[in-house]
Amino acid sequence: MRLVLPGTLASRGMALGRARLVQPSRYAVDNRPLAEDEIEGELQQLHHALDTARQELRELRGKLHGALAREVNEFIDAHSLLLDDAELLRGLDDLIRIGHYRAGAALKKQRDRLAAVFEAMDDPYLRSRKEDIDQVIARVVSVLQRHTTPEERKLAARVGEILVADTIAPADMAQLAGNGLLGAITSSGSAYSHSAILARSLGLPMLVGARDALSMLHDDDLILLDAEGGEAIVHPTAQDLSRYRAWQREAAAEGRRLATLANAATCTRDGASIRLLANAETPADVTLARTRGADGVGLYRTEFLFLRHKGLPGEDEQFNAYRDLVLGMGGLPVTIRTLDLGADKADAAGLVMRGEDNPALGVRGVRLSLRYPAVFTTQIRAILRAACYGPVRVLVPMVTQPDELIAVRTLFKLARQDLKRENIDLPEKLPLGAMIEVPAAAINVRALLEHADFFAIGTNDLAQYVLAADRGNDALDNIYTPLQPALLRLLSHVIGAGRRAKKPVSLCGEIGGDVNFTAMLLALGLTEFSMHPSQLLLVRDRLATLDHGNLRNHATRLLRATTHEQVAELLAQLSD
Fold it and tell me: What predicted TM-score, i.e. pTM, was given to this entire model?
């Protein structure tokens, strides 16, 4: 019988496939106490499972490239750290050795204990990290279960399946996408979660918040996942299938039409010229940016050199990566962001601060770089040398106050003097910009104007900090939305300050490449967008349908709105 399950659109598209259910870990474990002579064997079984889980993450990392790697590696690092957490491991050993728990029961006990600690936290960001504990423990439990049965891990979905789960870890989604997964439906989660962002970058349709999916669906049910319409149709009718085939034809035609825009100028319906830049991290990103007609690179992340390196990357290694980027863009401007590590990310180089009470608000970005001037100077020297091969701008992350930019400029000046003494040719000028992602920097942006040549707004973090809401926390869906009036006013303030000072302002957060927010950003005065290269043609196409002058004339109305619902309603009227 036909059944329709509503959900929230997380990644557009449609898919037709068989359901593959993944129930939340039940921890159906053996609670019988261990006999004394079973303890050593149980410990060996547990540590074998832990080693296997670590190996799985390493193998997954090795398979990831390009955008997929960029989106997923942060989570692989976080989960790998948890698997090596001394307190967690000591607790498991004690439960088996002293408490006579079996391995599965010990994992459940530790999971419950840690979950209680996270749930008691006031900070919503830290509270949401409980999900990482669940995912890591579930991975180890899965290995244990696999060890006792010949059956493959259920998550290893087959080609042509649609995953149905409570939540999906980004690492698991990456693995399944490589196995031919067609789409995903989750009963919880947020459209702003990292898994949802990953699904969008992969072009994988996804619904979140389909509350009854796990209880109403069964393995191998035929599902028409209609992420365009925000619903999943179980046992679709001939009429549903006809609609799906029509969508496929239209999507194919739309893809061919968009491809013709690769070499088109980027302008609005009334002729306003807009710059579209690309966010990049790998050579594949750079290639895609060129083929999609980007005007340059608006954000080049350098963290990957540190995250994937055992020890610190040397100056020559960094120089080679930056030089290849500059050469790859063939004379178009590139913006290199200096190291943006923090305690919320693992690093193999041992730079990040451990044990901070609230790492999201801790020593990260430029704060971390300035704590290690020798390491930072190595990166600065590499950037300066690469800038001889084409136009380069430098973007400083997590800026809060002018002192930080002054300190960075001083380090650049000293590095320049040293390189000149070594008879290395250098560009006369290297624009230095501030990433605006801290509310203090946005509110006090005029204080930064004297020291910054340009601004790039990082809306992912800025929105989280302004709204005090983690974008991955589905319990805060009604708060975390880029349409919040407070965020709009802050964006307008920064863009306006830059425009009046005749300094470029770009936006490189997730909403820069989301066509749902293009009209809003135009209305606020933004004329430089930076996004994942896969979104360039979609945004170019969207811009061509919008009247820049009309949107700008109604910016005041937009900024007077008092709720995000009012903003959405106004935008719908203005975008027609």
Answer: 0.69
